[in-house]
Amino acid sequence: MKNASPNTPIFDGHNDLLLHLWLHHAEQPAQAFLHQRLDGHLDLARMREGGFAGGLFAVFVPPADYVAKFPARQTEPFDALRITEQQIAILQLLAAQSAGQAKICRSVSDIEQCMADGVLAMVMHIEGAEALDEDLSQLDRWQQAGLRSIGPFWNLPNRFGEGVSGSFPGSPDTGAGLTAAGERLIRACNQRRLMIDLSHMNEKAFWDTARLSDAPLVASHSNVHALCAQPRNLTDHQLAAIADSDGLVGLNFGTAFLRSDGKRDGNMPLSVMVQHLDSLLEKLGEDRVAFGSDFDGINLPEAIGDVTGLPRLLAALREAGYGEALLNKLCRANWLRVLKKTWGE
After folding, report:
1. Which tens digit of pLDDT belongs to each residue from 257-297?
2. What phi and psi values does residue 281 have, to the nearest 5 degrees?
3. Which positions ≥6 away from 272 have C-beta within 8 Å?
4. Which stretch of DSSP H or E encloses residue 151?
């Protein structure tokens, strides 16, 4: 995989490529990703151009009324388990049909080897556990297929608790915490060494997880609430807990989570992203901050545009005084550190 800047390959904490392919390229998702320029933020050619070396690829079941807007999916009954497994199958196809250009990674050594070989490193992540039953009966099967990370919630309630919801400006304290099933899920993830993603947890669920989990606390794609008062951004108290656990926060590139006015308006300078990173680094330390772009799931700053804009973000960070050692940590080393600490491999 040829990178625009070979010294700064990026491992990213969150993208919604699989959902994009499931909605728009159901017939031949792998061929579309491998050989076409897609309408979203990501495809293989642009990942190469932007220096995107790998990341966590989300399996996400959107709300039924959203799915109903897409003609290709209107003929199928809405079923969260079926949608989840179809997206897992797409991830497997990306690897199988890539002629060695992409691989599902199950360990940090897998990721490191992929990055050394120029192979796209794909880690399977589930965003929202709507498809998982209370007995967690699918969890082992999914782990065998490559699952290494799970966020129990998106924005809506499920059997495990309530995700964060609410309008801007707002508090993350938007609902009840974990249910009894949610507490079992956290313990099961710890037992299986699966990473738990806090990014869509409301405040009560966050603190329930912090109390129960013995793993580093990780928010894969969240920003600073003090700078942008979206309910899904993290308060100083939450950031302190993440720091105390030796966890990590991945910077979300979405304008609604960056701008002080909370608007989905791409007309904003990259200095706003730098400001969030400065704040995260101040509160967490330079070993606990990384990128969690949310590519294909958000409105991007126009200065980035799509994955090919990553070198422009790095240029802005260099201009702001970020040295190469710190950029190395932000771009990949911090994710690899926390994944190894969580997975134990």
Report:
1. 999 999 999 999 999 999 999 999 999 999 999 999 999 99
2. -65, -40
3. 258, 259, 260, 301
4. strand 147-151
What residue spans of the chain are helical by DSSP H? 17-24, 29-35, 44-50, 64-67, 80-96, 108-117, 139-145, 180-192, 203-212, 236-244, 271-284, 310-319, 324-328, 334-343
Q: How far apart are CA 235 and CA 238, in angstroms?
A: 5
Report H helices in 130-172.
Answer: 139-145
Q: Is-contact 300 308, C-beta < 8 A?
A: no
What's the pLDDT score for residue 71? 83
In angstroms, rounded to a whole number, what is the distance separating the alpha carbons of residues 133 and 334? 33
When pLDDT is averaged across residues 227-256 and rounded to a whole number, the result is 98
Reported as a single tens digit per residue, the pLDDT across 128-180 is: 999 999 999 999 999 999 999 999 999 999 999 999 999 999 999 999 999 99
Share of the chain above pLDDT 70, in %: 98
User: Each residue of 45-55: b (16+ CB within 10 Å) or e?
Assistant: bbbbbbbbbbb
For 223-306, strand residue ranges (E) read 248-251, 289-291
d(Cα 227, Cα 225) in Å, to the nearest integer? 5
- Domains parsed from the chain with CATH numbers: 10-343 (3.20.20.140)
Q: Please list, residue by residue across 190-219, b when 16 or more beta carbons sit within 10 angstroms of its beta carbon and e when fewer do.
A: eeeebbbbbbbbbbbbbbbbbebbebbbbb
Beta-sheet strand order (sheet of 218-219): 218-219, 248-251, 289-291
Sign of CA dihedral 313, 314, 315, 317: positive
Token digits of residue 253: 């590139």
